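Bumping my old thread because nobody answered last time. Still need a sequence for this structure:
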């Protein structure tokens, strides 16, 4: 990400915490990452560099509802709910960091994103 894009992301986050931008509801997509596993992906829209927000363990992509619309002023913003939480599948296995990374790559491929910016909090920052 170039310096201008980084400043825009920082500005969007700052604006969201100041509650300057009202929240908009995202479109929900279900993306299959394995035969019997689909992940909940939220799409807040926007244009420009794609930004993929990765929720930590115990959270869903809705944890980004407060500031994702601010980012969408400058980027196309998506949020991923990891397996086992929210509306994503809850299989018996597949909860290690390498599987999370594979799941994120499958979402990126399915959405046909080119050079997305990934941002995660908590355990999702490991991917």
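Sorry it took so long. Here it is:
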């Amino acid at each position: 990400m170039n310096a201008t894009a980084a400043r825009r992301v920082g500005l969007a986050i700052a604006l969201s915490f100041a509650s300057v931008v009202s929240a908009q509801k995202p479109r929900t997509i279900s993306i299959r990452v394995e035969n019997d596993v689909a992940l909940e992906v939220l799409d807040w829209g926007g244009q420009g560099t794609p930004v993929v927000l990765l929720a930590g363990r115990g959270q869903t992509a809705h944890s980004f509802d407060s500031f994702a619309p601010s980012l969408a002023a400058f980027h196309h913003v998506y949020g991923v709910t990891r397996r086992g939480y929210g509306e994503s599948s809850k299989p018996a296995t597949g909860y290690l960091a390498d599987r999370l990374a594979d799941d994120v790559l499958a979402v990126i491929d399915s959405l046909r994103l080119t050079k997305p910016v990934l941002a995660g909090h908590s355990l999702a920052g490991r991917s």
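The radius of gyration is 14 Å. Let me know if any region looks off to you.
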